[in-house]
Amino acid sequence: MDLTKGQRDVIEAYGHLLVTGGPGSGKTTISILKASQIAERNLRPWQKILFLSFARATVSRVVEAISYEQQIPPAQRRGINVETYHSFFWRILKAHGYLIGLPRRLSILTPPSEAISLADVRSGFPARKLTDEQKAAKKVAEEAERTRLAREEGRVCFDLFAPHVGDLLHSSARIRCLIANMYPVIILDEFQDTNSEQWRVIQALGEFCRLIALADPEQRIYDWIGANPARLDHFREAFKPEEVDLSTDNHRSAGTEIAMFGNDILTGTFRKDSYSGIDFDTFDSIHNLAMTKLITGVYGARKRLLDAGVSAWSLAILVPTKKMTRMVSDALRKPPDSMAEVPHTAVIEMEAAILGAEIIALLMQPDDGRHFAQFIGLMCNYYQGKGGDKPTQSALKEATNIRKAYEELLACQAAGKAMRKNSILVNMIAVYEQACAIKLTGNPDKDWRAVRRVLEDGACKRLQEVSSEVRNVRILDRGTQLRQELSQNWRDNGNYRNALAITRKAFIQEHFSMSEKPEFGVIVMNMHKAKGKQFDEVIIFEGWPRMKRGQIIYNGDRIVRFNSRDQVDDQARQNFRVSVTRGKRQTTILTPNSDPCVLLLPDE
Ligand SMILES: Nc1ncnc2c1ncn2[C@@H]1O[C@H](COP(=O)(O)OP(=O)(O)OP(=O)(O)O)[C@@H](O)[C@H]1O
């Protein structure tokens, strides 16, 4: 690879460093080369370079770049430790958290468990249309409960990692030195997205460590969790870094005008000619017609990639909302008319899938006398936790109803009476019993599917929902730890005695696992999740307005909120640019013809 002038400057720089540049300008690549150079020349045997990133997806791309693209020798590779902020912070907290008053034994409060633990607090507030006072009071109540869970029970949620690590580092020079001794150089990926708590940690780390910050001020898409536009200036003031600007380079989509189009999105002025590598198309605002257009587009893109002989090709369908991720995934699985199904993976919020997986795991476990009570507990957990930090009131109510029906059942049993015929538990118990009656084989994959299928085909609509959520769990893939441990459990006991505990552990490990391969094939995901990734082709597919008597009654699945010109601001343009510039060879934009994306229209 021929390095650009800017990239060579990065290699030669000394001291704290700030590397800026647009999408695909080679920031990640050069930081890895720089890390490998430092690993070769300047590290003591026990030291490593730490590469910190926000998302595991980026981590996996970086790890892959280190192992394949750059031909970096193994010894230098081992000198680079790529990690998410979360997993780095967790290691610090586990080792030293007691110094700031946390219990000695800590466990992670995963997002689904956090949602379950906060459900009571949240159910005290209306789900929608909160007044400002209610919002503030809810926030305070949630914070208090999170802090209590950490301090009293040692269960720490992700949001508290950075504040606690900040407290720890600022109060202990010894630990700051300890970390610097282990990691003399720290690379900060996507630095523009650092929130104030993370920045506080970085300030402490920078006292003894050398910091290399990678940033694109115009790819800042985390405004809502506290990223600050002035963050780069904070870094400049605090650390007086050497600066290298790679901004005009574009290696990702070299030979196309994708990057140029991305820059024009920021100003909203487009040239008359088309941009090579960018394709636009529109569709009629009717579900089946929209999906037909999308799926035809997917077939076309797939064919282009196969014809071009791209190995392990990737094609991302980026959509604006969670709801659309599911809608598109369903349509690819069961396309309209007689179109062929499109094998794909969908990146969805995992709370519901994880809690559903716990139910499947329990159903694989033999009855130990508490089995049914535990099952009811997990069903309640599912409804309390499936909406993550935004549970719906109806889901919370469902949990309460299940709990009440169970208490009623116990009362009936104690009185020697039969259960009420219209109890919500009637169908649930019938399916539960069918699932428990399955003859398991010892092959976890097969058994898991058998249980899931009983739920899917059974008469209980709640368990049908659980089953369809669990479809999204991919960690049972061949060779994964969950699969191996379940097999081992069967070999040891002749049954899956610890299936639930094994499954819970596997999801926590999954959260920190660095082995995730970059995605290939067709992937459906929310536009926000595509940050830091790259795909051979990208299709951006937005929703369409629903009409009634000539009026728009719903337009919530749009790239710009409600596709309204009033909602166009820098953030909307930056988000769109991030999505567009994920494509290496082509980006296709599909928008409804009755109401095309306002970012593409000339100013009025
Ligand atoms: N000097 C170079 N010559 C050729 N290809 C390069 C060069 N530098 C980087 N690349 C390639 O360009 C692509 C994009 O680079 P990279 O991911 O480092 O950019 P980035 O600035 O981190 O992008 P983003 O901010 O959008 O994540 C990668 O596939 C990388 O291998």
Automatic annotation (TrEMBL):
Residues 1-254 form the UvrD-like helicase ATP-binding domain. One of its GO terms (biological process) is recombinational repair. Coiled coil: none annotated. GO terms for molecular function: 3'-5' DNA helicase activity; ATP binding; DNA binding; hydrolase activity. InterPro entries: DNA_helicase_UvrD/REP, P-loop_NTPase, UvrD-like_ATP-bd. ATP binds at residues 21-28. Keywords: ATP-binding, Helicase, Hydrolase, Nucleotide-binding. It comes from the Bacteria. Pfam families: UvrD-helicase (PF00580). PANTHER family: ATP-DEPENDENT DNA HELICASE SRS2, UVRD / RECB / PCRA DNA HELICASE FAMILY MEMBER. This is DNA 3'-5' helicase II. It comes from Halomonas cerina.
